[in-house]
Amino acid sequence: MHYVQNSSPAKSGDLVLVDAGAEYAAYASDITRTFPVNGRFTQPQRDLYSALLSVHEQMVRLCCVESGYSLNEVHRRSAKLLATELKQIGLDVSDRDIDEQLFPHHIGHYLGMDVHDTVDISRSQQLKRNMVVTIEPGVYVPYDNKFPKAFQGIGIRIEDDIVVGQTESDIENLTARAPRSVEEIEACVGSVSWGS
Question: What is the pTM for the complete model shown?
Answer without folding.
Answer: 0.94
